[in-house]
Amino acid sequence: MNKAICATTWREFKANKVRCSILTLLFLLPVAFYTLVRLNWDNAYEVDMISPPIIALAYTLLWSVGVIGREVQNGTIGLVFTRPITIANYVVSKWFAVSFAAAICSVQAGVIEHLISSFYNPSLLFSLEFFSNCCERVFICFGFAAVMVMLSSLVSGMKDIAVLAGFALLWGITNMIGGMLRSDLGIFNQYANVIYPLAGLVDLYNKMMMQAFFPSLSIEPMLDLNFLYLPAILNYGALVTACLASSIFLLNRKEFSYAAD
Amino acid sequence: MPETEALQESTDLLTLSPLAPVQGIVVTDLVKTYKGGKKRALNGLSLSVAPGEAVGLVGPNGAGKTTFLSCLMGFLRYDSGNIEIDGLPPDCLEARRLVGYLPERLTFDRWMTGRDYMHYHHELAGMPESVRKYECEELLRRVELDAAAWGQAVKKYSRGMLQRLGFAQALLSKPKYLLLDEPASGMDPGGVLVVRNLLKELRKEGLTIILNSHQLDQIEKVCDRVIMIEAGAAKPIDTASDSAVDTTFDFCIKWLNGSHDGHRAEDLGALVQRHVIAIKDLNDGQAILTLHSDREAATILKMMVQSGFEVHNLSLLETRLEKLFAKKSS
Q1: Which of A130-139, A240-249, B18-27, B207-216 is least confident?
Q2: Measured between CB atoms, which of B70, B107, B120 is closest to A75?
Q3: pLDDT grade for B226, boundaries at 50, 70 and 90
Q4: Pairing outcome for strands B54-58 and B208-212
Q5: Backbone CA torsion sign across A76, A80, A86, A92
Q6: Are A4 and B123 in contact (CB < 8 Å)?
Q7: Would the CB atoms of B96 and A83 count as touching at under 8 Å?
Q8: Binding-site residues on chain A for chain B (CB distance < 8 A)
Q9: Mean of pLDDT over chain B
Q10: Measuring CA to CA, which residue among B308, B304, B300 is closest to residue B262?
Q11: Which chain B residue has its CA at the smallest distance from A9's CA?
């Protein structure tokens, strides 16, 4: 991993006012939302009001969109590879830079929300729920960043977000089809022998898509030392590795020439 | 056998051994195609550059010069042929340590300052942190980039300033080989002079230079050898003995008109008539003389000064390389 690439990725984010503004909003909006809830719900002080771990996706998306694609589009990547840097080193450095930064921001936001809840109810301060929430955020950041790095190597500029949106749309459509196939078949009941296995396949596809694009791990079963959870950890590791390997492969196939073809 | 002789013998053996890596850049039968083989950018290009040599690349636009440099940098995958830089393939990390590169249209991270940019590439090049500040500033001074601009964002730089910054980054890793693609592109006359002087200094330091430039006078002044790249193939140009060029040169000579001796154009005609091939555009105070060599120009200059002409300028209108290029291109 290259320290210079990581530091430059962070500094580039800092230099982008739009991204910094969105990041500030991401910090403030949940706090504002939970403040409103506290004002309007009497039992609010009894629970730890902390955003679900899935919010880490937003932080990761903000940090990682166009992480490699923008350098390809601007042509600055070419000069990086005139230096003794391997493509693998570059990809891993970029992945680590965005995942680590997103994880820090996401956990920091969680800590702020948790501290506000703990201020009203000090017994919540050392809750297991908070700990597992933070860990899951970190897993989501590192997993989703790997997916984004792969998409960013596939297309130039910030088109990776369009590709992601395309897949999300496709996932939504197949999810809807899955729901329809599982519901009352009505006049198509005579084809149930065909339709139900098909619905199973669609469900499997949806689960795979969900796992492939949003790799995450639940912490609580792990804390129970449930070894049945081991395949999930392996699955997560394999997905992250596969995404990074695909990214290295895709960048290896590209030519970063200054010559017009 | 004395120790020094034994050492010499072993060195000779090493030099002759087929296993010893070839020093310099050796390119053999390089073929590079674009658009699925439909467009042939390099067509069996062969070239070798010895260590310490400066080679100029000339050729029309689209001849394959930048493609060739991109292949040398390992940016492009060539279809066939071979490239070796000190016996190493161009995409090898060790080879990259040896080469500095300045592309024609270098792109920058626009949010960075000039100093940040140098520090970033210094670190990428794997140079020690302890000397980072000193070496980066030294190079920025060397390319004569205004110190006030070092801390400014690159997006505020002019084209010439960017080119100077690009030149400085090419020298960051203390390369053995320097590949320059139009180093003076977009520069003001002062910048062009800086580049020319820098190239001369780098030559003295023993750097091997491959210079791609459309400024033929720059190539002629800096390079030992000139290679013309045309239709993807290399053709050496010998400016000293190429028979394709006639051996005459046009010199423009200027003298102060109406000086105390009142020398006029007719006087010059009478004076140099027997020494020149032709006299063109003969005016009071200026003439264009067609001569065979610099020596003849020196003789005529001496004669004119001795006859009382107050000569203030003598310049070559078209260099030999320019003449040769114009002829070959046509």
Answers
A1: B18-27
A2: B107
A3: confident
A4: parallel
A5: negative
A6: yes
A7: yes
A8: 2-5, 8, 11-12, 15-16, 74-76, 78-86, 255-261
A9: 80
A10: B308
A11: B109
A-interface mutation test, from B109, B117, B118, B129, most A Cβ less than 10 A away: B109
The beta-carbon contacts of A208-214 under 8 Å, at least 24 apart in sequence, are A209/A167, A209/A170, A209/A171, A209/A174, A210/A171, A211/A235, A211/A239, A212/A147, A212/A239, A213/A144, A213/A147, A213/A164, A213/A167, A213/A168, A213/A171, A214/A57, A214/A140, A214/A143, A214/A144, A214/A147
What is the residue-averaged pLDDT of chain A?
A: 85
Q: Is residue B7 pLDDT above 50, yes or no?
A: no
| ipTM of predicted complex | 0.83
The DSSP code sequence of A164-221 is HHHHHHHHHHHHHHHHHHHS--GGGGGGHHHHHHHHHHHHHHHHHHHHHHS----SHH
- Please say if the pLDDT value at position B141 is more than 80: yes
User: CB A80 to CB B66 under 8 A?
Assistant: no
Q: In this structure, what DSSP letter does residue B92 have?
A: S
Which residues on chain B are in Cβ contact (under 8 Å) with A11? 111-112, 116
Tell me which residue has tokens 């679900």: A52
pLDDT digits 0-9 by tens, B184-201: 877 888 888 888 888 888
Bridge partner residues of B32 (DSSP): B42
Whole-number pLDDT of residue A88: 93
**Residues in chain B within 8 Å Cβ distance of A259:** 41, 66-67, 69-70, 76
Q: Give B324: exposed, middle or buried? Use CB within 10 Å, 0-12, 13-18, 19+.
A: buried
Chain A residues near residue B85 by CB distance under 8 angstroms? none
pLDDT of amino acid B326: 66
Other Cβ atoms within 10 Å of A171 Cβ, number: 17
Is A4 close to B120, i.e. CB distance below 8 A?
yes
Interface test with B, best of A74, A79, A255 (most B CBs within 10 A): A79
Residue B247's pLDDT is 66
Inspect the interface and report whether the beta carbons of A84 and B111 lie closer than 8 Å: no
| CA of B300 vs chain A CAs: smallest distance (Å) | 47
* Window from A89-98, B20-29, B153-162 with minimum mean pLDDT: B20-29
Taking the C-alpha atoms of residue B303 and residue A257, their distance in angstroms, rounded to an integer, is: 55
Degrees, nearest 5: CA angle B75-B79-B81:
95
| Length reported for chain B | 330
The alpha carbon of residue A18 is apart from the nearest alpha carbon of chain B, in Å, by 14
Cβ contact (<8 Å) for A85 and B99?
Answer: no
From the list B121, B113, B112, B108, the residue with the least C-alpha distance to B152 is B113
Whole-number pLDDT of residue A199: 77
pTM of the model: 0.81
pLDDT-based confidence at residue B297 (cuts at 50, 70, 90): confident
Alpha-carbon gap: A83 to the closest alpha carbon of chain B (Å): 5
pLDDT tens track for A64-89: 998 999 999 888 898 898 899 999 99
Contact between A12 and B106 using a beta-carbon 8 Å cutoff: no
- A contacts of B106 (beta carbons < 8 Å): 79, 258
Instruction: Tell me the two tokens of residue A218.
Output: 């639940």
Percent of chain B with pLDDT over 90: 12
